[in-house]
Amino acid sequence: MRVAIVHYWLVNMRGGEKVLQALCELFPNADIYTHVHDPRATGTSFEHHEIRTTFIQKLPGAKRFYQNYLPLMPVALDRLDLSGYDLVISSESGPAKGVTTAPETLHVCYCHTPMRYVWDMYHEYRSNAPWYKQLFIPPVMYYMRRRDLASADKVDYFIANSRFVADRIKKYYQRDAAVIHPPVAVDDFCVSTQQEDYYLLVGQLVSYKRADLAVEAFNRSGKKLVVIGEGEQLGMLQRKALPNIVILCRQPFDVIRHHYSRCRALIFPGVEDFGMVPVEAMASGRPVIAFGQGGALETVQEGVTGRFFSEQTVDSLNEAVASFEKDACYDSDIIVEHARKFDKRMFKDQFMACIGMLSS
Asked: What are phi and psi of 224, to 5 degrees?
């Protein structure tokens, strides 16, 4: 069976790329198609696969400013000839599923999320853009929304990474989706008996992940918070943080694993489609204090592997932390066992079972 995997862009190694790695392990002879590829960012992760880019790769500054070329990406996908493949898997949270396949080709879309900037985060994206971009965003996003709806019709079968995303696929595309949670390499993490007196926040420092809320809350409480990540809010958070907050910027995996295993708990204040970070913390035996919406509701078990706060406010988060400290009684072994429900082996077994059923 000839297999092609279409991934939106390969310019970093985050959650979507971990899914792509697992898919490549399942299909070691698959060809990868993507708009932009930066080998310095992905290292040797996909070196055994043929990687083919669209014409976006050749545009000025594409590896850094690829999102500026979003309106051209549907056109770029139209130029890909995938007629020789038996199975096409699109890895979607940006323009990837809009490829045209042959009638006999099975096209399965693993959807991390319908494009946020086109759908549910459109107004936030527009309001945060510079004034000169705000002039062009409405017509461009209208065009992108129309193309996104048309591309959904090219998919034979949707798989969502969470029930939260499956509901959004139903709302925006009017399509049903199976749910297969993304893979977490649980055995790559370790449990430490040396717990230290600090909380941890890990992730991209962008507005919707709400690292600013965590910094404000810990500024007020005076408790120690370690922040690991990079992004557009980094400078602002560094200026705002008081001495009890340590911002480590981007760190290698060994440093992140160390902090996962030794923190009191992970702080997870945003609304995520799934959210691998809480599962990674739980794979390290540590509980999670999360905002009670989105994918966290599917990964964190109240009172067993963590607790939720109900509003994205400083008071609500600090009340959850105080309550956690007052009555926390969490068993690391139980937390790790819960995390194993999201292990990479589970993802692979479920995905192959789904492909087998669709191919039969």
From this structure: -80, 135
Among the residue ranges 108-112, 176-180, 193-197, the one predicted with the least confidence is: 193-197
Report the alpha-carbon distance of residue 231 to residue 279 in Å, rounded. Answer: 22
Question: What pTM does this model have?
Answer: 0.89
Residue 135 is predicted with a pLDDT of 85
| Domains in the chain, CATH or no CATH each | 3-183+343-359 (3.40.50), 186-342 (3.40.50.2000)
- For 136, residues 6+ apart whose C-beta sits below 8 A from its C-beta are none
pLDDT per residue as tens digits for the range 84-119: 999 999 999 878 999 999 999 999 999 999 988 788
